[in-house]
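Shipment paperwork, digital attachment
Item: protein structure file
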Amino acid sequence: MSERYDGRPVPREVLLRTVEAFARLGSLRAAARELGLDKNAVAKRLRRAAEQGISTPEQQIATLHGINPEHDLTHPVPAPLVLKGTSTLYDADGKPRMQWVKTRVDQEMVEAAMRAAVEAMAEDIPRAEPVPSPSHVNEKLCNCYVITDFHLGALSWKEETGADWDLKIAERALVRWFEQAIAQSPNAETAVFAQLSDLMHADGIEALTPASKNLLDVDSRFAKVVRTVIRVLRQVIDMMLAKHRRLHIIMADANHDPVSQIWLREWFGVLYENEPRVTVDRSPSPYNAFEFGNVALYFHHGHKRKVSNVAEVFVAQFREMFGRTKYAYAHTGHLHSIDVKENNLMVVEQHRTLAAPDAYAARGGWQSGRDAQCITYHTEYGEVSRVRVSADMLK
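Attachment content:
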């Protein structure tokens, strides 16, 4: 049972119990689980304990938050920052005269806050109404709709890049692609929506890639892009449910929109929780898998592992699935071009994108065809057919 004090000072014995739990279990997450708190509350209690001079074998947690009087660290660093380093200038008598404090963001606290916000908002999401199930399907078939690097919110000017691309063009193209891919594919009972990420061009207010801080050409405000993404995904999911009895959704991790993929997984997981025909893979891992009879399907954006070396990761991470199945296929994106390699473990395929190149790609000379595919697998025989719909067919 959790102990909460609603603004009152936390008793010293409670701080001692918190410090003991953290020292014994070795992590904020484990201590929080045992105490019935979230990680932020445990971190605050550890800081309070350090301020009161409570000694612990894990005194470094206090130092992490800028408190260690022995080394002249007496001012706590405000959450969600933690101490990165200090430089102290001492006078001839050994007394500190000036101190430079460097901080960094506590990623665990940021992640915990973000997940808490998502869970809170998800409570008020109207659940999707069930879509009527199709009556005539082939239970031995699975259609895998692979969409990657769609870059909703990107801006491309035809005179500079060879093709126009903006938010309206992208939304219309995705809906039309699904209309044609669904119409041309067989009436499979099962479908996989393999959204291999970089679905959104930017991941927030700043028009920059999250890790490399590369400048991006964006078409619209981020809030408008978010609304468009949710609207278009709900539309194409309903289209797939009208064709298939079962739908499995994958929203992979990637480099352009890693945070957005987190809230997409969580929100759509809640949105369709009352629809028994829909399952959403909510794993934060950059590697995903789906088992269909004798077929193992693997998915990765391609930003961590390449076509040449991703197979061994899939086998290691999904060892039991690989052992149960006869056929194995992996799908990646990221580089916007076709690359297929077959090794002793599986066939690994890198997919094109439907999106137009941005100025960075066009100036760099990275040109490739634009299409996406729906690949059909048989529960006993592996891949049996595929439908390829190009960007030119969507005009």
